[in-house]
Write a structure and sequence with these properties.
Rossmann fold; 40% helix; globular; six-stranded parallel sheet; alpha/beta; 2 domains
Length: 373
């Protein structure tokens, strides 16, 4: 079948899903509003849909209150004639639209309804929405568009409520890498901790440095920070991180890597013993899933949307968001208990194989499509 994904951009959290579909013989296309620096276009070349004149004006006005990318997502009205032409040219069997409120997605949803295409609405939020009126709006949307809805987050704010029958949980994909750990045996005298994320305050690089400062100073630990720097705000935050590392005298124990290509990320995962995602309010992270695929135990915060991928004590821990002491305790619970790092490394690999394989994604997508009227 021919799949058309519609999203603000081709995020790296979709790379393995696209590969799974392609390896199963499907044709995959992507409509986007813009492209980002950290993207990987080896498998699919995203098609940027132009905005209409009115859309450009609205985005320009909204930029006074927010950044351009967010403005494009919220009110970036697409050029409908160009969009219709591109849609008809691809003629998809299945449309997967990210965020039904985004104008580009909404337009493609109407096209799918008009032409009788299978439609899946894709979000990164709770299965049951609150307040209740949002759940009613979701049901109306699914009924009108004859669509299914999928999310990457398993639980909801109230697990006692039953989700809509065409609401599905489909986690991110990151196929387990065979023999990833055996190729680099653990050295207990030098534990490498990896963190990946844009240099933004909410990514909490400074919190991680503070939580690990004593361990780093001991010489037994090494911290690798990999992140994107594409805006003046990113540059400012990066300088704050570097200044604090220098202030603590940890330069030789903290490695900072900027704007690394996606193709190089496996090298960082392969060389890490533990992965930490210290971010606050992370909607739906995928980096810790990729880390697990290399047999890396993971630590994420309580405000990470995809914390449901972490089974406490098995493949990692969930720490109290913005709490350096809670983060430190989680790190030490894995690294200082004899044999624990090795055991959790094996479990991380096993969890990835069980829950995040390409086969499980394809089976999940088949279930979703089978539910459509």
């Amino acid at each position: 079948m021919t799949y058309l994904f519609v999203a603000p951009r081709y995020h790296t959290n979709q790379v393995w899903a696209v590969r799974a579909l392609q390896e199963a013989g499907h044709d995959v296309h992507y409509f986007v509003l813009y492209t980002g620096k950290s993207e990987e276009h080896q498998d699919v070349q995203p098609i940027e849909i132009p905005m209409s004149r009115g859309g450009r004006l609205l985005v320009k006005l909204m930029q006074r209150k927010t950044d351009r990318m967010n403005a494009m997502r919220l009110i970036g009205l697409p050029h409908l004639r160009a969009l219709w032409k591109a849609f008809r040219q691809i003629n998809p069997d299945v449309v997967v639209a990210r965020g039904p409120a985004m104008p580009l997605s909404l337009a493609c949803m109407f096209f799918a309804r008009l032409l009788g295409k299978k439609l899946v609405i894709y979000t990164q939020g709770y299965m049951v929405l609150s307040p209740p009126y949002k759940e009613r709006l979701k049901s109306m949307c699914l009924g009108f568009f004859r669509a299914a809805w999928m999310t990457t987050i398993k639980s909801g704010r109230d697990d006692t409520l039953k989700p809509h029958p065409r609401m599905f949980y489909l986690p991110f994909v990151a196929p387990a890498i065979p023999h990833a750990r055996s190729e680099r045996p653990l050295d207990p005298s030098r534990i490498s901790v990896l963190a990946i994320g844009k240099f933004e305050p909410r990514k909490n690089h400074l919190l991680l440095v503070e939580a690990m400062k004593e361990q780093l100073a001991s010489g037994r630990y090494r911290l690798v920070l990999v992140g994107e720097v594409s805006t003046p705000a990113h540059e400012k935050q990066l300088e704050k991180v570097r200044h604090r590392v220098c202030e603590l005298g940890l330069d030789e124990h903290v490695q900072i890597e900027v704007n690394q290509p996606y193709a190089k990320m496996p090298e960082f995962y392969q060389n890490a013993d533990l992965f930490v995602l210290p971010s606050r309010a992370e909607p739906a992270a995928v980096s810790h899933v990729e880390a697990m695929s290399f047999g890396c135990p993971v630590i994420v915060s309580t405000t990470c949307g995809t914390k449901c991928y972490v089974i406490g004590g098995r493949n990692g821990y969930v720490f109290k968001s913005d709490d350096a002491e809670s983060l430190r305790e989680s790190i030490l619970a894995i690294t200082e208990k004899p044999g624990e790092l090795t055991r959790m490394s094996s479990e991380a690999y096993a969890v990835t194989h069980e829950n995040h394989s390409a086969d499980s994604y394809l089976r999940g997508m088949d279930r979703i499509l089978a539910s459509l009227p």
